Structures are given as C-alpha cells and as structure tokens.
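Now for one protein, fold included:
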Amino acid sequence: MDDKMIPFPLEKKPQVSDQVLTVIAYQAIKTLLETGRSSQVIWRGEPPLLPVRKDNWELGPVTNEYTLPLEIQRRINILRNNDISIKQVLIAHEVPIVVPKPVETKKVEIPASPSPMLSPSTRRALLIGLAIVLAPFVLVGLAFVAAAILAPFVALYVLACGGDPVVVCVLEDDSWLMIGWWYE
C-alpha cells in the first residue's frame, strides 16, 4: 500500500506535512504500523456530512461499517481497541471528469411564407413562439442522443481508469487518516 499513498490531491498545497502530525494521528499511525499495516494522514478538517465532490473525487460517509472489506474493518477495530477515537469513516471514489465537446450549431434558413394574410412581424412572432415551445423537446432529444452515443465510451473509461476507492478515518482531532484501499 505504501507505493499507492496519497491517492488524491485535496488541495494544491498539502495541508498536512510530515512535521505537523498531531499526537492522536501519530498514535494511530504507530498503532497500525505495529501490526504491520500502513496508513497516512492526508488531510485535516471537519468531515463532510453528505457526499461531496472535490476535483475528480467524491467523498462520502460510510453508512454501514459492516459493508467494508474485512481488512479495513480489522484496521478500524485495531484503532478503536487502542483507544483511538474515530469521528467518521469516509470512502473516496474516483470520478472521471467528462468535459463535453462544444456542439456546433448550424443556422437554419426558414423560407418566408408566401401567405399574404400575415404581416412579417406576425409571422416572426409566430415563429419565435413555435421555437420557444419546441426548443425544450429538441434539446432533450439531442441530450438523449448524445447520452446514448457517449454512454458506452464513458463506461469503458470508468472501467479502465476508475481507481480503487480509498477508505479514510477522520480522527477526533480532525486528521484524515487513510487506512487502506477498498480492494487491497
């Protein structure tokens, strides 16, 4: 796990350096190291109450610790058995950032109606009204077609590049301790 530490940059400048470990975070790291398990402080701050997106990572609280992998549960139990209080357990999922390509719009020339009954301003008003009514349907249709075309590519990208979720324990001093990867 040491070669995969600090999976995501939460900020351009690191919040926690090696010199700024709190006593609680140091004790937690030391406790896990004594059992042959590595961990690392990656952040300091209040844990989010709801899922939050930061850059290309989605952080969210774990609602049921029993759904965590057994090795992660062991690490949490090691911390708790050594009187290290855990405020919250978070999971961080890597979410790819998909930037849509700009869509080129083509000007459509609408030929003038030969009807002498309507004045040009009335025809223009009718066309604008029709465009306003039809625009949402056209946009939804285009979005559906674009989603249908892009969905397989996005799914392949997520499968190919989607990283292993990270499990983080927020300690009582607001240190975020990365205790492991989901699939390790």
User: Anything to note?
Assistant: The chain has three helices and six strands. Strands lie at 40-44, 52-54, 57-61, 86-94, 166-171, 175-181.
